[in-house]
Amino acid sequence: MLEKFLQSYFTSIGAFAWDKAREMTEKNKQFICTHSTQFHNLLITLYQNERSYFSLEFLEQKWFLKKDQLRNSYSQIQANFLAIKFPDVTSTEAKDQQNMIRTTSSQLAEFCSLRSQSIAIYQNLSKAAMNSSYERTCISIKLLLDLISKKLHGQMYESIKINLYDELNLLHSLLEASSSISTWEFAKASYALQRSHTVLVKWKPIFTNKSSGTFRSSIFSFGEKVSNPSSALYNWLEKMFKFLNSKTTFYFYESFSQSLTVDEMKQALSKMSYDFVSKSLAFMKKYDGNYLRLYLTNRLVDDTGEVAQIRHGYVIPPSSMYDENSYAFNGSPKFSSVLTLPQTIIQDEVMDQEILAKAYATLNNPHEKVNVHLLHEGKNTIFCALVDKKSVMKYLAEFVIMI
Coil, helix or strand for 43? Predict the structure, then answer.
């Protein structure tokens, strides 16, 4: 009976069915308490923590809540699972059930440790600056994925293992896609987004049918009120996926255009959560822009062959390529055009290259994202802004360029 209950409990936790886990635990309270009241209480706390975890409540900043309350709770029940005491028994059956609870408690302690580390990853992400690299976070996620198979053993815990694998693989794929898009790695970004989509499709029926409530779902913050509190994590990850998918169609628009017809491309863009292409064209029309061009900056190499350091969203030149005091570039960055809107525009890129070189010269610090406003021959106003790891945006009252 105990083994059957535990299997059902873990299946419910792994399927995000926390209400079902609560009902089963309360229904079997008397039986569980005959072996250990402490174990029963810890199972209740565990499913409560799991619900809070997927609601992202641990990221809320409230003055009346203790810092890292959920993370501390997982740490506390981890210690309590390892310290469970049992009454003296004489029957073989009772001893076998106590041993099962002891083994289960040890595995749940490992699970709580993994959850605490997951919380730390999300907390670090929520505090990270927009120009932060995801490399260290991705390494942390990979290490955590390796720990799952090492720490959790047995068929009984398979559902919660799958739960952890899916969540962490989804987060890792999204961060990898974001970095790959920024460095124009089309195939790598596409595969990462496809892996993300596989998990989101699997989770969607579960989280879209949960009871109403409120939660935060902004892609870069957590301040928006929406329904389904226990679905907050799913909705945030889904929103990030949609954003990156939209960004992909913009960055690699010309590649998609070569393989799709005009109607197929329009249909694909209409399904995006944010159609960057149409928004860009509408912006140019509204402000009398002539064209928009997206340039990719080449990786900078100095005379010694040292390659510029690449970070998420930015190209950081080697120390030998800029003056320590003024951060002025000693070398001239080269740029490759990767997108022109509208595609029918024919415009010499020589002038663009000169303007972009001047834009780079205005950088006060190669680590920062800046907006640059330039005048060109007294006719038009040009706006340049670094927008990604290898790109800057320039807008002229006559045309718009992104580099």
Answer: helix
